[in-house]
Amino acid sequence: MSVVIGIVIVLVGVFGGYVLTGGHLVPLFQPFELMMIAGGALGAFVISNDAKSRRATLAAIPTLFQTARQTNALYMDLLSLMYDILFKIRKEGLMSVETDVDAPHKSPLFLKFPGILADHELTEFITDYLRLIVSGNMDPYQIENLMDNEIEVHHQDGEIPIQAINKVADGLPAFGIIAAVMGVVHTMGSVGAPPAELGNLIAAALVGTFLGILLAYGVVSPIAGLLERKLQESTKIYQCVKVMLIASLNGYAPTLSVEFGRKVISAVQRPSFAEMESHFRQQRAR
To answer: Looking at the predicted structure, is the pLDDT value of residue 164 above 90?
Structure first.
């Protein structure tokens, strides 16, 4: 919703200011100029991206209109889930969570937190590394290195649509200039026309440059920036899980391990220590 509101603010600010200075909107309506700019940008997007990049970009667009999943409540549930898992491991041994890891959708530990289960990638990340810890002989350094590599791959995959959209934003002003040049060529071909008609043709040509810059910096580039922010938020939650598991592997108590995880959460979503303790007590009381 904020994307739509932002675009409306940009358009009202630009066109509203233009109208208030005495300008008229009719000369700005140049659908063929817009077709040249949009068509050129779309063609360049198809040329510069393979099928994987195009699919990733199309899949990323709907996420712009979705609210952030990484909320204070989700992090609170994650901390509670990890505390329950680590406490069970410390009390009953590693093998006690084997069934929870193999079938998280049937696990009493995971079923208490439907918000975590709804995020299939996060659930898989947690269970995959718990499975390695339970069944493998890997030391904490190996586990941490593997986690870092997977998080890096996740971030690189998320960067694909961002880079594709940024390239479109970079190219839009140039395509606006192309449209303007084509308009100037058309104007020069009509040099014998009356001055009023020539003025309209020149104005139409200049609209191409205006539209290219407006779309680049007022719409497309901010969209790439929002996707970048969403990617950073989605990466942070995996880092939180990593810190808690590595702390537990290094021998820290569940309470301390979860506290380490809480510390890496962004300040906006980070629950206070008192909130976390209160949430833990409520979960245990259920």
So the answer is: yes
Euclidean distance between CA atoms 228 and 226, whole angstroms:
5
Angle in degrees, CA 264, 104, 249, rounded to 5:
45
Rounded distance, CA 83 to CA 120, Å?
20
Tell me the C-alpha distance between 262 and 67, whole Å.
22
Task: Please report, for the chain, the start and end positions of each structural domain, with discontinuous segments joined by +.
Answer: 31-285
Amino acid found at 204: A
Alpha-carbon gap, residue 7 to 17, rounded angstroms: 15
Number of H helices, E strands in the chain: 13, 0
Residues 6+ apart with CB under 8 A from 150: 125, 238
Dihedral sign for Cα 31, 36, 38, 43, please. positive
Q: Using CA atoms, how far apart are residues 28 and 10, in angstroms rounded to an integer?
A: 16
Scored b (16 or more CB within 10 A) or e, 133-151 reads bbeeeeeeeebbeebeeeb
Angle between helices 221-249 and 140-189 (to 10 degrees): 180
Question: Within 10 A of 128 (CB to CB), how many other CB atoms are there?
Answer: 14
Q: What tokens appear for 255 in the block?
A: 């309470």
HSE-up (13 A, CA, CB side) for residue 216: 20
Per-residue pLDDT tens for 123-162? Answer: 999 999 988 888 767 788 888 899 999 999 999 999 999 9
Whether the CB-CB separation of 224 and 3 falls below 8 Å is answered with: no
Contact 209, 176 (CB under 8 A): yes
What's the pTM?
A: 0.82
Q: pLDDT of 61-110, one tens digit each?
A: 888 888 777 788 888 889 989 988 998 888 888 888 888 888 889 888 88
* Distance between CA atoms of residues 262 and 75, nearest Å: 8
